[in-house]
Amino acid sequence: MTGYKKQKSSPKNLGMYLIAGVLAILLSACSAAAPTPEKSKATPPAPLEASAAQALVHTASRVSPADGMRLVQVPAGEFDMGQEGEDRSSPQHRVYLDEYWIDQTEVTNALYAACVQAGACEFRVRDSATALHYNDPAFAKHPVVYISWQDAADYCQWAGRRLPTEAEWEKAARGGDRRLFPWGEALPGPGLLNFNGLYGDTTPAGSFPAGASPYGVLDVAGNVREWVADWFMIAYYRLSPASNPPGPPSGEKRVLRGGAFDDPPHSVRVTTRFAHDPTSPGLNRGFRCASAP
């Protein structure tokens, strides 16, 4: 029987194998060490001048003597609140509201700082990110964040106003029709709002005139979620009064509205309701105020 003769590797072949192995190790190390390219962020638009913001108002406006905030009039009347098919926002139902006024933009760091200086508000610096947003002059016109529900209520009281009810917030954002976004039915996109991580952070209040509501209220979609007066109750829309609903009498969580700079498209609809611990502030939580005529 003919035997099998094992071939021996030549020194030349061994050298090639060693070189190939070393190259593979080096390439693997370089690949692991290479940083992942960071997703580029869009450049945020500049905030509106006061005259341009006033021009968006289709009813009436006035400036608060307490803090300089422009308020927009929302006339008395009915509107359709909620959306069929949304677990937390159904059934859609007809609601009547008396006339009220609401802040055209979210309360900014500069405005909140005035309340702190007056001794009526408190700002708790929790970490470097908190300090950056509140203390950096570059963020003065951005909405104040890291605000609890009580912090927001205290500011509104100092300014001679109050937090809007959930129904007031939605009517100001939606107007008299059944639109899903402040500007209409078109899907969210650049130029309309700050959402979906597009800018990576908050943007100056009032930077998106194309995204204004029918009354000229700004930033009611995106930028920061906004505290409203109401306690959260998932079935409240089935029980609420048809006229000036005040919200449930008690609860464990408060309602936030509007979506934030890091929220996806479905979360910035005017009907979306968030429930959150009222003592818990955060980077995506802010507020605006409202008042009676």
Name the features:
293 residues; alpha+beta; 7 helices; disordered N terminus
Gross morphology is globular
Binned, the helix content reads 10-25%
Please tally the β strands and state the result: 10
**Global mean pLDDT:** 87
Question: Any low-confidence stretches, pLDDT <50, length ≥5?
Answer: 1-39
Reading the helices and strands in chain order gives HHEEEEEHHHHEHEEEE
Short description:
This protein is an alpha+beta fold. It has seven helices and ten strands.
Structure description:
A 4-stranded antiparallel β-sheet has the order 1-2-5-10. The radius of gyration is 27 Å and the shape is globular. The model is unreliable at 1-39 (pLDDT under 50). Strand 1 (61-63) and strand 2 form a beta hairpin. The chain has helices at 11-33, 50-55, 109-117, 128-135, 149-158, 166-174, 236-239, and strands at 61-63, 70-74, 77-81, 93-97, 100-103, 225-231, 254-257, 273-276, 285-287, 290-291. The chain has 293 residues and is of the alpha+beta class.
